[in-house]
Design a protein that fits this description.
alpha+beta; six-stranded antiparallel barrel; 4 helices; 27% strand
């Protein structure tokens, strides 16, 4: 929708599968074929945003906005990156947010790790997102922003 509301109209059911994790594990090859090569991630319409610096205040606002989106049952898709290094250029589907005094812990579905949740952490003091070490990323600070939330992203 053009107003940026990404709340799903109803629960998505994948017949024959308990959920997205089971489906993507069982049908990994077909999903990868359908999605195309890794080069497509570089041509995603919201990637223009990654070349501009991310302020800590902007990341703080993004973390709060993502947490509030999840509270209304939205499932934001988040671009996580390091630029210009490009040590990571990836997307995650956020499905839960646990707010604490010093942090927000986002539970994410990662298509590169379909067998388990990946945690995207936001540290309120440093106003920084971090990812743990994964087989495709050494772990550490990342910048994050929601994609597919309007015509510009």
């Amino acid at each position: 929708e053009s107003d940026g509301d990404c709340k799903p109209p109803a629960r998505v059911v994948i017949p024959g599968y308990a959920g997205l994790r089971e489906f993507s594990t069982a049908r990994e090859a077909e999903l990868k074929d359908e999605c195309g090569g890794a080069w497509r991630s570089y041509l995603q319409r919201g990637n223009w945003r990654m070349v501009f610096p991310f302020s800590r205040g902007g990341q703080q606002a993004e973390a709060a906005r993502l947490a509030s989106q999840i509270q209304i049952a939205a499932l934001p898709i988040v671009h996580v990156l390091r630029f210009p290094q490009l040590t990571i250029n990836h997307t995650l589907l956020l499905h839960a947010a646990h707010e604490a005094l010093h942090s927000i812990e986002f539970s994410a579905y990662d298509p590169n790790v379909p067998e388990r949740e990946v945690m995207l952490s936001f540290d309120r003091a440093t106003r920084t997102f971090t990812l743990p070490p994964l087989h495709y990323f050494t772990g550490g600070r990342v910048d994050a922003y929601e994609i597919y939330r309007g015509w510009i992203y």
